[in-house]
Design a protein that fits this description.
Its EC number is 4.2.1.152, 5.3.99.4. One of its GO terms (molecular function) is oxidoreductase activity, acting on paired donors, with incorporation or reduction of molecular oxygen. This protein has 488 residues and is α+β, with helices and mostly antiparallel strands. It has a domain of 339 residues: Orthogonal Bundle (Cytochrome p450), CATH 1.10.630. The protein is built from 19 helices and 15 strands. Helix 7 packs across helix 8. It is globular. It starts with a helix and ends in a 6-residue tail after the last strand. The structure holds protoporphyrin IX containing FE. The site of protoporphyrin IX containing FE has 22 residues, from helix 6, helix 13, helix 14, strand 6 and helix 19.
Length: 488
Amino acid sequence: MVWTIFLLLNGLLILILLYSTRTRQKNEPPLDKGFIPWLGHALEFGKDAAKFLARMKEKHGDIFTVRVAGHYVTVLLDPNSFDAVINDSVFLDFTRTRQQLLKRIFSLQLPSIKPTAERKWMEQHFQGLHLSKLSSSMNMHLQNLLLSDNKGCSPSEWQHDGLFSLCYSLLFRAGYLTLFDRKDNAAAVYKEFRTFDNLLTKLARSSLKRGESKTVNSSRERLWELLSPSWLSGESQSSTWQQSYHHFLQREGVDAEMQKRALLLQLWTTQCNAGPAAFWLLGFLLTHPEAMEAVKSEIRRLTLRDTSLQRRPINQLEAHSTPVFDSVLSETLRLTAAVMINREVMQDKILCMADGREYHLRQGDRVCLFPFLSPQMDPEIHQDPQVFKYDRFLNEDITVKDKFYKDEKRLKYYTMPWGAGRNMCIGKEFAVTAIKQFVFLLLTHLDVELCDPEAKLPAVNPSRYGFGMLQPDGDLQVRYRLKTQDEM
Ligand code: HEM
């Protein structure tokens, strides 16, 4: 027994040594393995990926390979070269990495489903006629929730809340009521989801502590139950979004247990970004009075005939162009959307950079784009990148500014909050409309103020880099009250 363990340990040690003796070959990107065998830079990466990758960029330039928990990851930070990764579906792939993540985070296995089939199904719902129905429904739910949450409050009565809680809770519940069939448990789903979402990054990195594992597992199981509609066990006739998803999974041969679990994946995909985005946007407006005034005056100029909460949903917003609001949203997302685009190298590949450099990528390694660092926070592209400038994406004639340059080359990718290529966000239009409806509703129907007029936006929670919209560490305390009819 002792000998077996000894031999096993020896074998393991040899493997570790073999693995950690990788050296940079000709034509490969600079290699930085870190000091810890196998783990490499995993700890620094998981703690604050933006800080770590900025340090590596400073040291190695816009392409380098780092070792992270046994994987070699080539990080590409030149947006002019992104297409070489995004458009390559032969040498680079994301299917296996995605499946691993689904299993780890959602305890979900969908091997029979091709990402292209799922994407096609999603697109049917978030485009065209379906999209405008969903957006109307979202608007109605936002209005109803705002009214019911403030029921019994007189217009003069101030209420206090954290802005993040306020935005996330309202947008989440409205989104849930729009897409999911159970209408009786939105508040419970939101509460449970926040517990799950708070531990999601640790779950993805397999770095949960013992107590946390228990919490996240029971939260996940509770969410599976909460999301299961009564019709799941029987036949359903009508055709809501959730039923359509159920039929899609059935057609693809997914068993009942996995169908149930897949609903949590959909809840996360559709609801985890809009609330945090609305928080940052309103947070920036509240801490930048000139931006707030510019948005409010754009709203005043919109000739909305009916802003009453009690009447039918208003969708004129979609018909009006709102360049100032659009610039504020783009600027907000530039500063707070931090997706990582990951691919696995399926066969050895030569990566051709825009400036003519060529690098060899090894089969089995990974490639990662992190647009948050570049283009979004790149000082060569965006002057004073840390600063919120509400008109950064506006030309002088108040049209959309879309010409940005690096190395004197006009950029195709100057900000990438929605991802790009085959994985680009399907819900972009739905999300933009929802955030716009929400911000509009709040600014026209509520007086919202910072509790402390000098308060600053909270810092970013650094563990969330790579998981879409960033979330704050803490909250921004606000007070709000319903406006009277005359004030609207
Ligand atoms: C501010 C809000 C949002 C942002 C910033 C955002 C961002 C993104 C990003 C960056 C991706 C690509 C992820 C990757 O490459 O791994 C993505 C994918 C996706 N998003 Fe969004 N999203 C938002 C809201 C929404 C909403 C509201 C929906 C639906 C209602 C939605 C549906 C999807 C879907 C279905 C995908 C998967 C696409 C695929 O795998 O092919 N998103 N989103």
